[in-house]
Amino acid sequence: MHVGSGLVGIAWDAWLAERAGADAIARRQRARLAGLVEFARSASPYYRRLYRDVPESVTDPRQLPPVGKRDLMEHFDEWVTDPHITLATLKSDFLSDLSQLGSLYRGQYLVVTTSGSTGEPAVLVHDRNSWAVVSAVVRVRERRTLIKVAEVRALLRHGLRAAALIAGGGHFAGVVMTENARRRSRFAARRLRVFSVLRPLPELVEELNAFNPTVLYGYPSAMLQLAAEQKAGRLRIRPVLALSSGENLSVNGRAEIESALGCRVTDRYLSSEVPALTSRCRNGAFHVNADWYIFEPVDERYRPVPAGVISHTVLVTNLVNRVQPFIRYDLGDRVELAVDRCPCGSAFPTVRVEGRTGEVLSFRAPDGHAVTVLPLALGTVIEETVGVRRFQAIRTGPGSLTVRLEVWPGAVLAEVRRAVGERLDEFFAAQGAGAVAVEHSDELPRPDPSGKFRQVWSA
After folding, report:
1. Where do runs of H (alpha helix) occur along 185-219?
2. Which of 83, 116, 125, 242 pairs as cysteine with 265 (C-beta 3.0–4.6 A)?
3. pTM, entire model
């Protein structure tokens, strides 16, 4: 099936694939990989050069070299397949203008920015077919699990009001998707809202109380903050459902959120590069949508690891996005494929994710009480500073933070450090924290001993 056959055709093929078994899924994967590689060779100078020694016929992804975010971003203009798209123009004409949030670049591309678990900022471009697959696959594969019948009835009684708990102020994936939905529908414009986790917690609580959301979606660390506010009586909302993504949700964290907010919490494993990577079955397992995404757990030398073994990282291939091909892309997550087939009966492989975790950081307020800060909120303040290429921020005490910076070529380290310090001072003041001493380390950002790159954590 050609991806241009429309949403209905893609949905029909997704429905057929889940019933056809593992062999049919593998055939779809091989055919789509061959077509993607052929197109990338012809339309992307980056891949044409990278694949110059690769056989003409590609039937196995292991015939292809892996790629990483840093190298791709350094060759952005050669990587993308539409010659009208350049990184400089994207940044100056589109990404710098927040009034463009959710709109289509050049009338056909959805553009998001992200840093991801490798700490390397990225600009991601998706074509219409890429998002059509996301919409169709989610609707087909999670039609019985995303929302329960009782939750639908509750939403019909109380109305849909969805609050996105994500970092605002930029073209981040959650913001772009929410604002795109608001642009396309008057109903969505009234019923969906972004609540930036960069806002001081008291202001966020006040706004949520006024909106009274029935659905929450976003970072689980933000939901844990809200759970504490709900228990303290400052937050007074009655959501029907909470959808978490962007960080790992622990068993204890899920129980805490469900107990405080009085609703079911479900989580998703996806990425801005591969936005419909997995779907959850009725048993709660993540299944890789292998008809549209190739998922390869590998060791530190990019060799395959067997099922039942935790990988060093995972290589992913988005088989549908043609404008910015992701082929054997190092996603940076530690994963483990299940040895046995899932009891739900699905032929799609099951994966357990270590991925990214989000612990809430605590700093001291002037009156001595604790002020909690989300790692993703603090990290956004740093990574959005002009000149920052990669960073790490380590809380070393209730009033101290150590920052490691890598700056872009041409940027002056001392100036970037000063700008980061000023932005952090403003951020902590807005959060109600006391003076936080920011120490700039001469060390560059680096992975931890396990090889995982963490951006923000408490020592």
Report:
1. 186-191, 201-211
2. 242
3. 0.83
